[in-house]
Amino acid sequence: MRRVxxxxxxxxxxxxxxxxxxxxxxxxxxxxxxxxxxxxALLISDEFIxxxxxxxxxxxxxxxxxLMGAYFLHMNRLEEDxxxxxxxxxxxxxxxxxxxxxxxIRSKGFLYLDELRQKRxxxxxxxxxxxxxxxxxxxxxxx
Length: 143
Hints:
The protein contains five helices and five strands; from the N terminus they run H-E-H-H-E-H-E-E-E-H. Helix 2 packs across helix 4 and helix 3 crosses helix 4 (65-77). By secondary structure, it is an alpha+beta fold. It starts with a helix and ends with a helix. 55% of the residues lie in helices and 13% in strands. The longest helix is centred in the C-terminal third of the chain and has 36 residues, at 107-142. Strands 1-5-2 form a three-stranded antiparallel beta sheet. The protein has a two-stranded antiparallel ribbon with strand order 3-4. The chain has helices at residues 3-15, 20-27, 38-45, 65-77, 107-142; strands at 17-19, 49-51, 85-88, 91-94, 102-105.
């Protein structure tokens, strides 16, 4: 998992539930292009985290939820025009209130973070066991 994805996952796990707007801002500070939102879109589509609103789909994009998710999340960061619509790459969205939508950790996300912690603990314990198994015979030979 990439550093950005892990940062997002850990932050949501720590807080349990955050607003969609806050989650989108975690992936990048400045809104540039939709590609910055793939980390969050992949976490959602792979069910590490959940979202209170589903990704929209358009005809011909049913097999591309990550792409539509990245577009949807990026459009969350863009300013609405005078009609209350957000337009990006030929897609128009209106009537969304992203401050009320929530992003939350799912069981798969908790399990993944728990596995990472366990692997880190195993590495630390293995290091100390190896160090002690080398140190004890050395000290016994000195006696």
